[in-house]
Design a protein that fits this description.
Layout (H helix, E strand, L loop, with lengths): L2 E6 L5 E2 L4 E9 L6 E12 L5 E9 L4 E9 L7 E2 L3 E12 L3 E9 L6 E2 L5 H8 L7
Amino acid sequence: MNRLRIEFDGDRASFLPGEQVAGTVSWQLLEPTESVELRLFYYTLGKGDQDVGVAEAKELPAVQEGEERFELTLPRQPYSFSGTLISIVWALELVANPGAITERLEIVIGPEKREVRVSSVDPDKSAAGAGSGEASG
């Protein structure tokens, strides 16, 4: 059986923007591999087309079995985000090719190490405050 693993030092998955993180990746593959790569990326979920952005990718030794330390500086944006129509999810992914054998570990990057959450807007309240001269913020 193929085995891929991603572990952060301190066994946590919530981080501040720009924070430096470290950990270990390991893999055991049944077949020889052409490449092994660690990717830090985000993707969107929800309405519309899915977007994907790769912040960093590191090539690792293309061996059937290995273990490597990693250090990454997390990007300052975009934050992990959950909204009514769309969400932004950050993840680390270890990928072995051929066959695109993967292990994915979702993480949170945000202020106070939490995702930004936006609840739905009440259209009646929005319209009532729009012309009233009230400041919103």
